[in-house]
Specification:
By secondary structure, this protein is an alpha/beta fold. The protein folds into 2 domains: about 5-155 and about 340-375, ATPase, nucleotide binding domain (Nucleotidyltransferase, domain 5, 2-Layer Sandwich); about 155-335, ATPase, nucleotide binding domain (Nucleotidyltransferase, domain 5), CATH 3.30.420. Helix content is about 35%, strand content about 20%.
Length: about 375
């Protein structure tokens, strides 16, 4: 019996929406179809602006959520056309898992009472998405974990364990989106899976590249590779209290914002842009490799997914920083780098529909396992 779910993801890179149709009917998941749609420059700028307090933001956020649902719906309809070509009807798809676009992530409790519970906010319009697609939609995956005292992130380690876990060796999985997050998958099933946000992934590199070259990202890391490391700047970037915080922990553009970067760059205003790009790339690499050394030192391999897996210079720097590990792309393990997170949210939707926990308390710090997400029927 087929067990079809759609997963939709738009991450902190703000580059667009990725979608997958996944068949979970066998022990090894099968990608039936994939699709993506880039964000327009105007929409991307609006989402970026909504990451910080801004004018009339409630109204603008609602409209942005509707616009995101429209993008999601176009991705879904592309997936449905591909599915129909393979003889799969829309009625066979159980649900869509739609993550939404994170614009605030403040999971820390601010006081002892319930009014002080932290929060996480993803722009979305799941009711509209259900209306536009005629399919059940599961959304708002993170808030239940936060309500249970967790970080609400990362949520993908449980999925990583099922897809990339190995009985022969411990494995680490690094997602390089706008923010980088790490999953530690122990060989021993009695040991807990760990996961947390390392710090910046592509977000600061992409922003610097866009500003100075007009390109949305540094293709292959070629521009960074043309520059030189600035040790004083690297030291300043790494001098951020987040990196010394114990796990569980999570972060986002709330901390590693363009304003944060501008302040760090103030004493380096006369440096060459390509040297700063080189240093930002090394910053991401050092934050990630330090995380692996601290919590995944027994790992034999680092599997990299997300857009950063295509940055050859960054991948080389990760390998240089972890000489005892094999650094590889998730493509070499059967799942393309840009489809991993979307597939994870298809899996999370399935967990919600079947009323199974989607979080790992060892990762998020929640009080226990929780069914994540809210259902919006077609």
């Amino acid at each position: 019996m087929q067990d079809y779910y759609i997963g939709l993801m738009s991450g902190t890179s703000l580059d667009g929406a990725d979608g997958v149709l996944v068949d979970f009917s066998s022990p090894t998941l099968r990608l039936v179809a994939t699709a993506s749609e880039p964000f327009t420059d105007i929409f991307r700028a609006e989402l970026l602006a909504l990451n910080t307090p801004t004018h009339n933001e409630l109204h603008r956020a609602a409209l942005a959520g509707h616009q995101l649902a429209a993008v999601y719906a176009r991705v879904v309809h592309t997936l449905l056309r591909e599915a129909a070509a393979q003889g799969i009807a829309a009625s066979q798809i159980q649900a869509i898992g739609a993550h939404g676009q994170t614009v605030r992530h403040q999971p820390q409790r601010t006081s002892a009472d319930m009014a002080g519970v932290g929060y996480t906010l993803q722009l979305n319009s799941p009711a509209l998405l259900a209306e536009l697609t005629g399919l059940d939609v599961v959304a708002d995956f993170r808030s239940r974990d936060v309500a249970a005292g967790g970080q609400g992130a990362p949520l993908v380690p449980a999925f990583h364990q099922g897809v990339f876990g190995c009985v022969d060796a411990s494995v680490a999985v690094l997602n390089l989106g706008g923010i980088s997050n790490l999953s530690i998958l122990p060989r021993d099933p009695r040991s807990p899976v760990l996961g947390f946000d390392c710090g910046p992934g592509n977000a600061l590199m992409d922003a610097w590249c866009q500003h100075h070259t007009g390109q949305p990202f540094d293709a292959g890391g070629a521009w960074a590779a043309s520059g030189q490391l600035l040790p004083a700047l690297l030291a300043s970037l790494l001098d951020e209290p987040y990196f010394s915080q114990p796990i569980p922990k999570s972060t986002g553009r709330d901390l590693f914002s363009l304003a944060w970067l501008a302040e760090k760059l103030r004493p380096f205003a006369t440096e060459r842009p390509q040297d700063i790009q080189n240093t930002l790339t090394e910053f991401t690499s050092r934050a990630c490799t330090a995380s692996v050394k601290s919590y995944g030192k027994d790992s034999k391999e680092l599997i990299v997914c997300g857009g950063g897996a295509f940055n050859q210079h960054l991948m080389q720097r990760l390998q240089a920083g972890l000489p005892a590990l094999r650094v590889s792309s998730s493509e070499q393990h059967g799942l393309p780098p840009l489809q991993v997170e979307a597939a994870a949210f298809a899996w999370l939707a399935r967990q919600a529909v079947t009323r199974q926990a989607g979080n790992l308390a060892s990762v998020t710090g929640a009080a226990g396992p929780r069914v994540l997400g809210a259902l919006y029927p077609a």
